[in-house]
Amino acid sequence: MKGGFLLVSLPKWTFPLLSAALLSAPTLPAQAGRATLDSPKAAREGKKAKAKKKRLRWPRLSPKEKRAAKAWIVELAHKKPEVARRAEERLKDLGPGAIPLLVSRMSDVRPERNQALERISLALIRKEEAPLAARLLFHHLACVRGLAADLLRRAGNPSVRADLEKALAEEKDPKVRERMVLALCALGDTAGLPGLFEIASKDFFGRRGEILASARSLKGGEAEAWLLAKLSGKDRKEQITALRLLALAGTRKAVPAVAAFLDSKNHALALEAINTLRSIVDGKKPMKHIGVFQLIQLRNEWKARVAGKEGR
Fold this sequence. Notes:
Number of domains: 3
Helix content: 55-70%
């Protein structure tokens, strides 16, 4: 024995037999050592581990924070306004992790606190939490589904548009549907444009701010073409609605079609044409009411501008 190894002396006549045995032994493939790692089971487990690692979660609150949050939510309905305001600010200090807790306290039957809970949630939502908020679109409570749409509109993350489209197709509550439509359009999805047009037709002045904000996100492209098609129809109410939405969704390509209404005998159509041109060309806000003489003056001014004759 030398160096811990046992040395064995073999007769010379065994060498040819040993060489032949070694040459005839089956060759193992180079990947044989990785067979266990590359097996279907190992691949599945690897994918599960990767998915678990990437799974989105709301930021966690400590048990102490959760207890405090529950007490503050109760105080939102306090008779003293200063107590309610202080509770709201403290809840906001908890960050986005408080949203699931806020949502869990919403109610379709007793909605006294819903408005405050929604306001706080909207102040806390961030773009990165939008996929988490999208899960709430399919909640059993209508008030939560409506809030989910508002959260997605506020978060501004277009990655959730498919979830919104699916939720809108399934939604039965008309008020929740409107909130989903506004969210879709605000995220630049023209699938919500027909619904936005309907909302604007019914209550434009009551909801002007949110309607125009959503229309702005659809500027140009398919939305502009769709609205110009409505403009070319014969329904006066639809033409007025199309002009109002084109004020934010239209581009200079729409100017000739809009300018054609400057000579309309209908005061409302002529006024909306002027407002739309003011918005598209000058970026100015619309005027609600103008007198007959001012209308004539503005109409002549815009006809000259569109024809390229201003200043002549």
